[in-house]
Amino acid sequence: MGIKKMTLAAFFAILTGIGAQIHIPISVLPITLQTSLVLITGILLGAKTGAVSMALYLFLGLLGLPLFVGGGGLHSLFAPSFGFIIGFIPAAWVSGYISRNTPYPTPLRMISACMAGMLFIYIFGLTGLYLNLNYLAGKPFTVYQTLALGFFPFIIPELFKIAATTALCTAVGKRLNFLNHSEEKWL
Q1: Total-model pTM
Q2: Strand 30-32 relative to strand 23-25: parallel, antiparallel, unpaired?
Q3: Which of 128, 152, 170 minimizes the C-alpha distance to 31?
Q4: Residues 96, 114: contact at Cβ < 8 Å?
Q5: Rounded Cα–Cα distance for residues 92 and 35 (Å)
Q6: At the N or C end, where does the chain have fewer CB atoms within 10 A?
Q7: How far apart are CA 173 and CA 132, in angstroms?
């Protein structure tokens, strides 16, 4: 990985941390800009660099930098939202892979990339939330109760974020010509 890719990966990791600070608490989990920034990272940087950026975000947050909604540090491993943060790595990879695996990415391709990335965030996040509630907090939660807490309230906001992310990445990608090249060539 070259200097330019490493710099962009670090920039987007920090940007994702800033997005965590912009949040609306609605339950145990807040609505944040993080998910949009994860998808933007994957789409604009590509699968590999996007995943590296989110791994760096996770690492820096666990080191203690206040990049997560609740701050940072090893205690974050036990937060109900930590599964979502783990899901950022595969989400950035899959959104980058889907958006880049075509000669010319259409808005439909961008929507598909965002939806697939969101799917990974929620698979990891809801699994982590279920395990956290049942085994760390010691509260018996069913799968449906976990979905009611960590998924259903977020459907509409996530759809808006997917639409905004698609519009932004399509416009920026065309403007900067990021999306018309393979991951290895554009940087």
Answers
A1: 0.91
A2: antiparallel
A3: 152
A4: no
A5: 10
A6: N
A7: 38
